[in-house]
Amino acid sequence: MTDTTADTPTVLATGGTISCASDSHGDLVPTRGIRTLLHDAGIPCSSVTARDVLRLDSSTMGLADLDALLTEIHAAQEHGPVVVTHGTDSMEETAMAVDRLVGGRVVLTGAQRPADDASPDGPGNLRDAVAAAPRIDAPSVVFGGRTSPAYGVRKIHTTADVAFDAPTILRPAPLSVAPVPLDGLRVDVIAAYQGADPAAVESALGAGADGIVIAAFGSGNVGVLADGVADALADGFPVVVASRVPAGGVQLVYGGAGGGRSLARAGIRPAGELTPPQARMELLCELAVKRAQLLR
Known about the structure:
Elements: E1 10-15, E2 20-22, E3 28-30, H1 34-41, E4 49-56, H2 63-76, E5 82-85, H3 91-101, E6 106-109, H4 122-132, E7 140-143, E8 146-149, E9 154-155, E10 164-165, E11 187-191, H5 200-206, E12 211-216, H6 226-234, E13 239-243, H7 260-266, E14 269-270, H8 276-295
Parallel strand pairs: 1-4, 1-5, 5-6, 6-7, 11-12, 12-13, 13-14
Antiparallel strand pairs: 2-3, 7-8, 9-10
Helix pairs in contact: 1-4, 3-8, 5-6
């Protein structure tokens, strides 16, 4: 007999704009649960397995929240593909963690307009995500009629319906096929800018950071942060350089004290076309896998 449940998606709700409605002050807060979201999308509850796992604004998600979500996704994958409703603010970070530590048929979606808007986009996005989940073979974001790979996806507009896109980049093999804890690790993002504090890297490491991502100038120059980066590398801390420029990625070609090429010789790692938050999440996942291997 054919297992008819093998491609029945599990829908996990975490809050975000898709679940938001206005409170008595007119503020948007995540109040609607998954059953209401399915009803609004015209998806029969009998056609999916669904549950609320979080109910928060994704800008407030911490690593413990993300660990809990990854565990839920991994468990749900035993029964088929998984759809996650998620806030757009940090969706690209969760998408990276899902890709690196879980993999498989996982779709993230959400909304730009709240559930009580006169023309909400969440119901259509949720319908598209549920329809796409059985057909994909790697974690993806389905949003505004577009399907993007989770690896490298980023929010490209604060209000437009087509809110996410991803550059065409090579997706490396997942680091793990089961989640490992991220909580307890710390990777700081430090911005390079005119007048930046040269001691910023030292301050971050002194506060307990396990690694650093530099949101660098242009193709990967770190400017006055160079001495701190060099010291961190010499002390064995991983340092990744990502560009603050939206397109083109990191090209470590410049010399000089703050030049990317000089620091590449010292061991700095380029993030390619990943954004600084994505590079941070990838490094966190790498550190989490190494920590788990050491504890075995």
